[in-house]
Design a protein that fits this description.
single chain; alpha/beta; Alpha-Beta Plaits; Histidine-containing Protein, Chain: A; 3 domains; three-stranded mixed beta sheet; 5 helices; flat
C-alpha cells in the first residue's frame, strides 16, 4: 500500500470513528496532502464536522469538501424554516435565542433578529446547520449587549482573559476608548 492509499484509509477510519454511520457515504481521496471529500451526508452540520475532523489531522494541507446534503424526499423551504424555528425554540439556548428567526430559500437559511453575545450567534448557526434540508446558513443577527460596561471594566476583562493564556501579557498593550457596550 503506497503512502497516499495508507493516508486515505487513516482519514476514512477517523471519520468513521468520530461520525459513526454518518461517514458511510463519504468518499475520501488523498494525494500529497490534498484531501477531496465527496459523497453524501444528511445535514450541513455533518458536512462541516467531517471537514473539521480532517483539518485536524497530520499530513493534511488542503481540503476540498464536495459533500452533498442528501434528502430522502422533497423538503419545502417553509418546512425547513419551521424546523429551524422549532429546533431553536426547544434547544437549551432557547431563552437567549428567543429573538432569532429564520428565512429559508432554496435550502439556504438566513438568521435574523437579535442576540446578546457572539456565543449566542454561534449557537443559533449550529442549531440551524443541524436541521435536515439546510444547505447553508448565513447570519444577519445583530449582537445587542444588555450590559453597560465602561472602558476600564472592558480593559480589565481583556487583561483577565489574556492572563489565563500562555501569551506573554507584558508584551500586550490594551486600550479601550469610547466603547458603548
Amino acid at each position: 500500500m503506497d503512502k497516499d492509499a495508507k493516508m486515505t484509509k487513516i482519514i476514512k477510519d477517523k471519520l468513521e470513528e468520530k461520525m459513526g454511520a454518518s461517514a458511510m457515504d463519504i468518499n475520501v481521496e488523498y494525494q500529497n496532502g490534498f484531501v477531496h471529500l465527496s459523497g453524501f451526508v444528511d445535514v450541513l452540520a455533518e458536512k462541516t464536522f467531517a471537514e473539521e475532523i480532517v483539518k485536524g489531522m497530520d499530513g493534511v494541507h488542503n481540503i476540498e469538501n464536495n459533500l452533498t446534503i442528501a434528502l430522502d424526499g422533497e423538503i419545502s423551504d417553509s418546512h425547513i424554516n419551521a424546523e429551524i424555528d422549532r429546533t431553536i425554540k426547544h434547544s437549551k439556548y432557547a431563552k437567549s435565542l428567543k429573538r432569532v428567526s429564520s428565512k429559508v430559500s432554496g435550502g439556504s437559511a438566513v438568521l435574523t433578529g437579535y442576540v446578546n453575545t457572539l456565543a449566542d450567534e454561534m449557537h443559533a448557526i449550529e442549531l440551524a446547520k443541524s436541521v435536515r434540508g439546510v444547505k447553508s446558513v448565513a447570519s444577519n443577527l445583530d449582537i445587542v449587549s444588555t450590559h453597560n460596561y465602561d472602558d476600564a471594566t472592558i480593559k480589565n476583562k481583556i487583561s483577565q482573559v489574556f492572563s489565563g493564556t500562555r501569551l506573554s501579557t507584558p508584551d500586550i498593550q490594551t486600550e479601550v476608548t469610547g466603547c458603548r457596550c
